[in-house]
Design brief:
Elements: H1 12-28, H2 30-36, H3 41-62, H4 67-85, H5 96-107, H6 113-126, H7 134-156, H8 168-186, H9 188-193, H10 201-206, H11 224-242, H12 251-273, H13 277-280, H14 287-299, H15 301-311
Helix pairs in contact: 1-2, 1-3, 1-5, 2-12, 3-4, 3-5, 3-6, 3-7, 4-5, 4-6, 6-7, 7-8, 8-11, 8-12, 11-12, 11-15, 12-14
């Protein structure tokens, strides 16, 4: 039996572009990179390219530029995305993120419309959009995180013979919602300091926190721990639904997703145990614990734990 043919090495410019995206990802997204490291090299590179583009969009939205300048920058980024979509970006392009993303989209069926949705979601931030209900916030979360789940699914693919794969994109989207709601809880203080409140206004009113979910001490009658734990339960339910994606993936892709989900679900545990911790600073896991979660992703241990928690 003859060995499988080896894939030709990447052109130097494409290799350098992927290395740039990997550096961006490992520097700014440790939770993401711990999961991505479990992937085969080609898929890992594609995930890094997606992250680097998404990071560029987020940095525009979170930066200190005036809103009109941010909108102009986001329009330019959307134009760049269209160039990638139209196959107008070559390896000689001076933008390494565009080069890497263009190469990744030739190798994998990545639904680039998800990056348009991300830009739409960041525009909501730029324009100071507020969220009255969970349905309102869910739309935002789908733009900035559910879409990323669907983009990553384009890299993962589904396992041959897997059942129910017609719902894979739905589950990837729901898992993205769970991750984003966890981010919102973790970043309550930081967002408030930047003049943003993402939690639905109807939830703030229900727990007497309409004056501001970040106030410490809370105003009389406010139940900040109750508010946080209510949102934690919502996120856990989303995790349990979204993790139905895992049996549809190959083992390494499932391990990657399980590692990311496990890390964020452990953040939920920490927040649930001490809701006021989010007012003192960003809650996070030490690197050693993230490595343990990644290893448990390979065994499915954390996946089963998250699924059980979502049903309680």
């Amino acid at each position: 039996m003859s060995p499988a043919p080896r894939r030709a090495p990447l052109p130097p410019a494409v290799f350098a572009a992927y290395e740039y995206c990997a550096a961006v990802s490992t520097r700014h997204a440790r939770n993401f990179s711990y999961g991505a490291r479990l992937m085969p090299l080609a898929k890992r590179r594609a995930l890094y390219a997606l992250y680097a583009f998404a990071r560029r969009v987020d940095d525009i939205g979170d930066g200190t530029l005036a809103p009109d300048v941010k909108e102009t920058r986001l329009t330019g980024t959307r134009d760049l995305l269209q160039r990638v979509r139209d196959k107008q970006v070559t390896e000689d392009d001076t933008d390494p993120v565009a080069v890497a993303l263009a190469h990744a989209t030739r190798r994998f069926p990545i639904p680039l419309g998800g990056l348009d949705e991300l830009i739409d979601g960041v525009l909501l931030d730029v324009r100071g959009h507020a969220y009255e209900t969970w349905d309102d916030l869910r739309h935002y979360c789908r733009c900035v995180a559910g879409a990323i789940g669907r983009l990553c699914l384009g890299v993962f693919g589904t396992a041959p013979g897997a059942r129910g794969t017609d719902r894979a994109a739905e589950y990837a989207d729901t898992l993205g919602l769970a991750l984003q709601l966890t981010n919102i809880l973790r970043d309550i203080r930081e967002d408030a300091d930047n003049g943003r409140t993402y939690l639905p206004a109807e939830d703030l009113r229900a727990f007497g926190c309409e004056a501001g979910p970040h106030l410490d001490p809370a105003p009389p009658g406010a139940d900040f721990p109750g508010l946080v734990r209510f949102e934690v339960r919502r996120a856990r339910e989303l995790f349990a639904q979204g993790l139905r994606l895992l049996p549809m993936l190959d083992r390494r892709s499932a391990a990657c997703v399980a590692a990311m989900a496990g890390t964020y679900h452990r953040l939920l545990d920490l927040i649930d145990e001490d809701p006021h911790a989010v007012l003192r600073g960003r809650v996070g896991l030490p690197g050693a614990q993230k490595a343990v979660v990644a290893l448990r992703g390979l065994t499915g241990f954390d996946t089963r734990r998250v699924a059980r928690a979502g049903r309680t």
